[in-house]
Give the backbone structure.
Amino acid sequence: MKSKKVLVIDNEEYIQEVAKVCLETVAGWQVLTAGSGKEGISKAENYQPDAILLDVMMPDMDGLTTFEKLKENQITKAIPVILLTAKIQASDRRRYAQLGIKAAIAKPFNPLELAPQVASALGWNL
């Protein structure tokens, strides 16, 4: 079985690093990182990840705008997206589901639970 490729888009380098180490160590996935929505869209086009973990609150282009641009793009529209967000209410979850977002994981997240949460949201085996 080939390893999954996950793109983490977050403007905080610390979050990128923690997510990368956790997903690579716990799940054995290949992890790419991007520090902005624009960089993330470019990497999504070029590397075709199996999933994207996307921060909601970022400068310049926020996560929801980035998500919209990913969905408008023929090359990236089928890639499942999971949001990483500090702001997560029941109403937010409903809105995210209506937009087609697979799940929302609260920040700060438990590093050891990140891979199982992602796998569960996407129906992947760990």
Q: What stands out?
A: The mean pLDDT is 95. The longest strand covers residues 5-9.
